[in-house]
Every structure is written in C-alpha cells, then in structure tokens.
Design brief:
Length: 476
C-alpha cells in the first residue's frame, strides 16, 4: 500500500530551477516536497555549467602562461597534469555542492525524496512507495544529452557531458561531434590544454548566433583545433584492439578520422519520458512540455520550468522561470515569462548575445535597421591587456530602439550586462551612449558602439553648415 502525503507544492526535479523554487517557497511558508531521481543540483552542478567552467578556467590559465612572454614574463617547465586537472574540476563541484545539498534543503524544511516521480492522476504523483497529493506541481526535470542515430555509434565507447569530466588523462585525439555551445566550449578548452581536437558539425558552428560574430570565433579557433563544418558522418567503426574509433565522413568513403576519445554533443532532449504525462492530462511533444506564457500546462495544477520546456535551455532561464511560477502560485499574480533571455558561449574568446541577431532583424525589419560595430582593437584597455580579439555589435532601428546586441571578447558575458538592462527596460541607444565610464575600461566599447549611432548625423555636411553658422554668430 502506498503512503499518502499532502503538500502545497510538489517539485519534480532538483536541478537549479527546482531548487530555486523549493528554497523560495519553503522560506515563504509553503509546504514543499522535492523529488529527485539522480543527483541533487542536477545537470548544471554535476555535469554542465560548473565542471565545464572549471575546465575552461584551467584552459584560460594555460593560455595566460603561454602568452606571458609578450608581457616580458618568461616561464619554464610548463606542463599540464590531467590528474590534477580532474581534481580541480571535482573540487570545484564539491565546493558548491553543499549549497545544493539534501541536508541544506531539509534544514530549510523541504521534504526531499530520492526516487523517480511519475503522475498517477492529474493531481497525484507516485515516488517509491509514496503517493503525493499537492495543490500545485512543478516539473523541473531538465534535459539530457541527445544521442544521434549514427550507424556504429552504439558499438563505440563515447563521452557525453555527463562523463567527459571524469577524464584523468590526456586524450591523444579528442573528436567532438556537434557544433553547438556544449561541443564548442569543451573542444575549445581541451585545445587550449594542448590536446589534439577535431570538431565535426553537421551545419555551421553556433548556427543560431550572429554570422559576423561567429566568424570571429571561427577565425580565432581554427589555429587551435580542426573544425569541419557542414559535414555529415556516414558511420563509425570501433577498433577494440587499438581502442580507436574511426569516423567515416559521408559521401567521402576514402576519408576517415581516428579518435582516441569521442564526445557526443549534438544537443539536448527534454527529460520527460518517466513522468507519465498523459495520465496527468499534460500536453507535450518531442521538443518538450507545452506551456502558456505563465508556464502553466494543459493541466492547470501543473507548471513547468527550465530545459524540459524545450526552448531556452540555460540555467539562468530556469531560475528566471522559478520566479515566474512563484509569483503565479504563491502570490496569485498573473506573471508571464516575457523577458528576453541572454546567452553566452564560453569559448576563448567568449560570445554573448541578447535579442535579435542581424539576420533575424533583417527578416523582420528589412533595411530599417542600423548595425553598430565597435572593435576591441580600438579600446585602450583591450590593447594594454593584449585582448583585442572581437567587437561589440548592436542592432537598432532608425529611432535608436535597441533590437539586439552581441559581443565577442574574453569577457563578453560580463560586458553584455548594460545591453540586457537597456533591452529589458526599453531604453534607447542614447542611454548607453550617455554613460561615463572609468578610463581605461573594456566597458567603453559599449559606449562607443552606441555613440556611433549618432556619428553620421554629427559629422554630416548639414551639421558642418550649422556649426559654421553658429560660429559666425558668436563674437570674439
């Protein structure tokens, strides 16, 4: 016989979004039950953001050492200890883990249950031998690595983001299949750690990003690793004697690539198949669970946050969603998910974006847009730091409304902040152009990109005529 528990909120999934809801709701006085079938902290803590950024941090340090002679600093005996690198990555996970631990949430008053939760009716969930009845349910099960249908892949050992960070030695040749953010970040990091890396992308790398900005990333990385774009794979054969995977490229049977290690990074799939959604009258498709702009499903007692929706698959999106459902459920406010979600890919250099790309803006507005570029090669701080790769690119309409902004630079993700503030608060180009920055700072590039909106008018022949007239009026 199942034990029956009643609660205010039942959250399925203890990743970043689920934990955010649980923490806020229980501290506001709600009775909360949290279900997790695997690891508390979810993908972000254990297999995603935290370990990947720890790996990238190591790659950055290696690159700093390699570049130090340009600053007059000589280094000797440079080497990479991959066992110690593994220790660094997992020590960083362990450092953050207590904040996401069962003990912390139980101390807050959350009822944490380890097990697989599945709906048994529109208003009940079964986990282990407990049946949970809740006033509202929140699905926050996230996503998992999507494995492509490549003949022979099933017989070859391969990594995904869930296992790649368990490496304790240097691969002879890492082949990454997938040209999205996950594949490119890991490929870039290992390449900067002196690993031979080949990346194979079915289309272009970072296909959703602004083409001009991606070209800057491509040009920088092509000297670090081999990038094969618009390349399909015919099959994979595995030699278990030499422990080598041969990747045979499509329509070119004479060409194959030998990989000592293989990483599959071909996107994410929503983690929804254990939920028994049909029983709960919840509509979904292969891309994710269907929700309205309040993040509510076809079952009005059930809300969804994060990757399992199948749209913006970012930790910060899940945390934003958490705030939306808190307002809807606890405060009965008609909160809607309407903010533009920024994104960043942490390659070296980084690429960050919010709003429309140039290509998207031209599809919507045609020629009624203006592209504003300011290269970091013209920024004094970037010059002193020898970090002049990249630029700030802003898309605006003719009246100065900001439609989108993208940055390529080593610090792009941080430099994007003023554009996020401006777009989400309907500020114009003038608001950024009028800022006064300390000198010298990288943020000045944002100011000068915005200021270039006014350059054609300020330096036009008409303005010159006006200034000449005004000067004649002034007396000596």
């Amino acid at each position: 016989m199942s034990q029956i528990h009643k609660t205010d909120l039942c959250i399925i999934g203890a990743g970043s979004g689920g934990l955010s809801v649980a923490s806020a709701a229980v501290q506001m006085g709600a009775n909360v039950t949290l279900i997790e079938q695997h690891k508390i902290g979810g993908d972000c803590l254990n297999y995603g953001c935290v370990p990947s950024k720890a790996l990238i941090a190591a790659a950055k340090h290696a690159q700093l050492i390699k570049n130090s002679p340009a600053f007059g600093i000589r280094t000797t005996d440079f080497s990479i200890d991959h066992q110690a690198l593994h220790g660094h990555i997992h020590e960083r996970i362990n450092h953050i883990a207590p904040h996401d631990s069962i003990e912390r949430f139980e101390n807050l008053g959350v009822n944490v249950i380890l097990g697989t939760g599945k709906f048994t009716s529109p208003n009940s969930v079964l986990v282990n031998d407990s049946k949970i009845h809740a006033r509202r349910f929140i699905i926050a099960t996230g996503s998992k690595a999507a494995i492509p249908n490549i003949p022979g892949l099933e017989s070859a050992p391969y990594f995904t983001n869930e296992t790649i960070f368990d490496l304790t030695h240097a691969p002879d040749h890492l082949v990454v299949i997938g040209g999205g953010p996950i594949g490119l970040e890991i490929a870039c990091a290992y390449a900067h750690l002196d690993i031979k890396v080949t990346l194979i992308a079915r289309s272009n790398i970072l296909a959703k990003e602004d083409k001009e900005l991606v070209e800057l990333i491509r040009n920088h990385l092509k000297n670090k690793l081999t990038i094969l774009e618009n390349t399909a794979i015919n099959k994979i054969s595995y030699n278990d004697i030499n422990n080598v995977a041969n990747i045979h490229l499509k329509n070119d049977n004479d060409v194959s690539i030998e990989a000592s290690h293989l990483l599959i990074a071909t996107g994410r799939a929503p983690a929804l198949h254990t939920l028994n959604l049909s029983t709960a009258n919840i509509n979904y498709n292969n891309e994710g669970i269907l929700v309205d702009n309040r993040l509510c499903t076809s079952n009005k007692k059930v809300y969804v946050i994060g990757d399992v929706i199948g749209k913006e698959q970012f930790t910060h999106a899940a945390n934003y969603h958490a705030g939306i459902v808190i307002r809807n459920i606890l405060f009965h406010l008609p909160a809607k998910a309407s903010a533009l979600i920024p994104r960043a890919t942490f390659t070296l250099p980084e690429i960050a974006h919010i709003g429309l790309t140039e290509q998207q803006a031209r599809q919507q507005y045609g020629d009624k847009i203006q592209c504003l570029n300011w290269p970091f090669a013209r920024n004094d701080r970037a010059i002193t730091d020898r970090q002049t790769n990249g630029l700030v690119k802003v898309i605006a309409n003719k009246k100065g409304k900001i439609l989108g902004a993208g940055i390529v630079h080593e610090h792009a993700s941080d430099l994007l902040t003023p554009w996020m503030l401006a777009i989400n608060n309907n500020l114009t180009i003038k608001s950024i152009a009028g800022l006064v920055h300390p000198y010298p700072t990288l943020g000045e590039a944002n100011k000068y990109a915005a200021g270039s909106f006014y350059t054609p008018k300020l330096f036009s022949n008409r303005m010159k005529s006006i200034i000449k007239l005004l000067m004649k009026i002034n007396r000596y």
